[in-house]
Design a protein that fits this description.
Length: 530
């Protein structure tokens, strides 16, 4: 971090405090530096150096609102500062001001075209917004400037994977591991492609990487998941399961998950939506939207790829607009969802539906229909159909044992704590089936039950039925979905959906009696298990 000299001289006291803050920062005493810089600003509220330092400190601890405010104030003094614009772009991106964020990042690259950091941050933001082609170009620029820029190489490999450039992604991850043999993100990225077969040498190197002292828990987990998948490739399923168990147990200590609270939430949704919502003011509202509902690793990305292969449908990947609309209404009413639902009028639901359509308009810029695939939509189907009475909902389900095992084998984000423990995973699966069965009964004709196993066994009739349900004419491109070129943000699925359907994806039999407890818990919850 570098600091420019303020344009106006500070008082002697403020100057001494600013110098002390810089020394504290150099010594990595970040909390002390932030307290000192606050004292500087009490004496000189508009000092750009102090404001900038406060913004960097705030951004470091995740306070993007304060960071954005500080950086925007300083930008008036130093509009040509590329690093300042990168910091502001990151803060605005995290605050949801995507267009403004990208504009500042692009401007930073114009101001400092030789800055690897500028190109890296632009590329990362573009990739997250599904602009993968542009992201690849930006990240390649970063690497050309700084070949040893490991984060840029990791981001480039991820972006290439989302575009289906799997060989390039594999080569990228391997290059990261050549530069840094123990890089946890590199090993996990390679494993997460689900197309690479690890050999015995990979197992040895992964064990060595895991044995290093002082590894952060996150790195231990990344390497643990990669090692477990490598052990699977060597046919050692017993040791693979134990390795997954260790990595998941570590992760469970760090993530928040309230299994009992989730069950109460499902019970509340079932109770509230048992009563009818008001008749819609406009029954045609929302015909553009196709919601895809599933548990992770159940085939939802495959179904989205099939629909996005249709010339009338845009695949939006996992977007957050529906839960954000509901969350905003929850805050407005100062009442938890779904408790405010009985008080919502037809006008309220229409307002929320129109807000959702306005937020998602960019997904209909070139095609009239779009998919909305989110891991939390299964809770919100009743609300979605009250808001958008002409929308369609596709519930994608897979054999429950295979689903639970697949989730247990996958390292997700911190928001999916239920995947760390097979008992909690089973309970989540049971609740999913309880609630989605209710939606199917409550909204016949508007909610479709789609079995992954049926899709794999008889793709053409199932795909024709899916298109008919969505009021889409049949298009042969949907049968050849693996040839469709588009960005797929789900890395574990990105390579798989570029391949024809496979019938050999079941894994549970390989784990034998290690899954007996899972099977029994699912049976006790009322699910059919072989």
């Amino acid at each position: 971090m570098t600091f420019q000299t303020a344009r106006r001289p500070l008082s002697p006291m403020a100057a001494r405090l600013l110098a002390r803050a810089r020394e504290e920062w150099k010594r990595r005493q970040f909390d002390a530096a932030e307290q000192t810089i606050t004292s500087v600003l009490a004496l000189a509220p508009d000092d750009p150096d102090a404001l900038r330092m406060l913004g960097v400190a705030a951004q470091r601890r995740g306070d993007q609102a304060t960071a954005a405010d500080c950086f925007e104030r300083v930008l008036a003094t130093w509009p040509q500062d590329a690093d300042l614009r990168v910091g502001l772009g990151i803060a605005l991106y995290e605050r949801g001001r995507i267009d403004d964020a990208l504009a500042h990042m692009r401007r930073a690259c114009e101001l400092a075209p030789a800055s690897a950091s500028g190109w890296f941050n632009l590329g990362e933001a573009l990739w997250r917004q599904t602009h993968a082609q542009e992201a690849v170009v930006a990240l390649q620029r970063a690497i050309a400037i700084e070949p040893a820029h490991i984060p840029a190489r990791l981001s480039l490999a991820r972006a290439q994977a989302t575009l289906g450039q799997v060989d390039a992604a594999v080569a990228g991850y391997r290059e990261v591991l050549r530069l840094d043999v123990g890089n946890a993100e590199g090993w996990f990225g390679l494993a997460n492609l689900n197309t690479v077969r690890f050999d015995a040498d990979d197992v040895t190197r992964l064990r060595a990487a895991l044995a290093r002292p002082g590894l952060p828990p996150r790195d231990q987990e990344l390497l643990g998941f990669a090692l477990a998948k490598a052990l699977e490739d060597q046919g050692d399923y017993a040791q693979a399961f134990d390795t997954f168990a260790l990595a998941n147990a570590s992760r469970r200590k760090r993530v928040r998950w309230d299994a009992a609270g989730e069950r109460r939430r499902v019970d509340a949704i079932l109770r509230v939506f048992a009563d009818a919502t008001p008749l819609p003011l406009d029954p045609s509202l929302g015909s553009e939207a196709i919601f895809i509902v599933s548990i992770p690793r159940s085939g939802s990305t495959l179904v989205e790829q099939i629909l996005a292969s249709h010339p009338q449908v845009e695949g939006a990947n996992e977007i957050k607009d529906l839960p954000q609309v509901i969350d905003a209404e929850t805050r407005r009413r100062a009442s938890a969802f779904p408790l405010w639902v009985p008080g919502a009028t037809a006008q309220d639901w229409q307002r929320l539906g129109q807000e959702y359509l306005a937020r998602t308009a960019r997904w209909r810029a070139t095609r009239p229909r779009f998919t909305d695939k989110s891991l939390v939509t299964w809770y919100l189907v009743g609300a979605a159909l009250a808001m958008l009475p002409a929308a369609r909902v596709v519930v994608v389900r897979r054999d429950p044992v295979e689903t639970c095992l697949a989730c247990y084998r996958q390292l997700f984000t911190e928001q999916t704590g239920f995947t760390c423990d097979l008992d909690e995973m089973a309970d989540y699966c049971i609740d999913f089936m309880r609630l989605t069965r209710f939606w199917l009964q409550r909204h016949p004709g508007r909610v479709l039950d789609l079995s992954y196993e049926s899709l794999v066994a008889e793709p053409e009739p199932v795909i024709r039925g899916l298109l008919d349900f969505c009021d889409l004419p049949f298009d042969p491109a949907c049968l050849a979905f693996h040839k469709t070129s588009r960005t797929v943000l789900s890395t574990p699925s990105a390579a798989q959906v570029r391949q024809p359907l496979r019938r050999d994806t079941a894994r549970s039999a390989r784990y034998g009696d290690k899954l007996d407890r899972l099977r029994q818990r699912l049976r006790d919850g009322g699910l059919a298990v072989e």
